[in-house]
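Before a colleague's protein record goes any further, I have to sign it off. I want your independent view on whether this chain really folds as the tokens say. The record follows directly below this note.
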Amino acid sequence: MAAVTGNPVEVRYAQAVRIAVVVIVAVWHLGYDVLLLTRDQEIYQPRWAAFAAWLVLAVVQVVGSVLLLRSRLSAATARTLAVIAVAAGAMAVAAYPSQQAIGDFSWAWNTVGWFGVLLLLERPIGEFVILLTVNTGVTVVAMALDGSLGEPVMWARLIAVTYATAGIQLAFALLGRQLHQEARRATRTASEQARSLARDAADEAIHAERQRRYGDLQHRVRPLLRGLAGGELDPAAPAVRRAAAIEAGRLRRLFAETDETPHPLLHELRACADVAERRAVQVTLASYGDLPPIPAEMRQALVEASLRVLAEARDQARLTVLADPDEVVVSVVAGVGPDAGFEAPDLLPTSVQFDEEERELWVETTWAVPGGG
């Protein structure tokens, strides 16, 4: 079971398994093992070896439990503590009476196995299997040295004890991993469903907003088209041409919102510039700085003033986008005719300057980045 630092549900499942293992090891080592050592301490030879082994395991237990519960039990530390636990278990087995490696006085085999669950819970299962194998091997060697391994009944007892200790511990370790995997799978499914619902809601909101804006455009464009078709409006009239250019730019900007682009603001400005370029206006677009995410409503406000200036442009225009952590500024400078008219949209702070001699209109719109300086 890999270390968990992600979804809160996964963290809670993993922490629950950790707490269960810590409690099992604490109850086993501080309860059952202490009972055996204090009740039958005279039979262990040398006695100090048995108590020293218990003390070493107690230290390993405390250190491993604290690090595990704090999610700070690294691979190297876990392996080192596991080796120390196996060594302490071997020292305890060496102090057993003869013929008692799996008798009524043996306690280290089961204890070291649970220590393996504790220390290697979040390591690959192969490492835990190695610990169980080595731990079992220590007992088998002790039985071989005292001659008890030659008795058929001892083989039966060895198999039964192995099944009852290592088998249960391995099953617990696998169960912990399975619970974690199921928690991860469940949280992944829930997250995917939540993201899907959020995307659907966002798509519906965007679609509704676009439909509203399409409706607004229809209210403005339909009278213009009817007037041109019915001869009520003169296509050569500057006011009519200006109105047609503005509405064409708005349509292009609305279409551009659905395109994939590095930044929507630049793409929408480019769409407005295309409308002006179709009237033989030379438009240059420059951007400086890293643009932050800009809400659609604010992008619309930043583009609107430039769109109106481009509709007035006579021969050339220059669009500039400046971005810093505090604000985004869109400015446009364009040469305009003597009959030009400009009304700044009341959406964002807009500065308007007009050079009478050069017949240049300079408009600058500023959006303050939320949370900026």
User: Anything to note?
Assistant: The two ends are 45 Å apart (CA to CA). Residues 152-230 form the longest helix (79 residues).
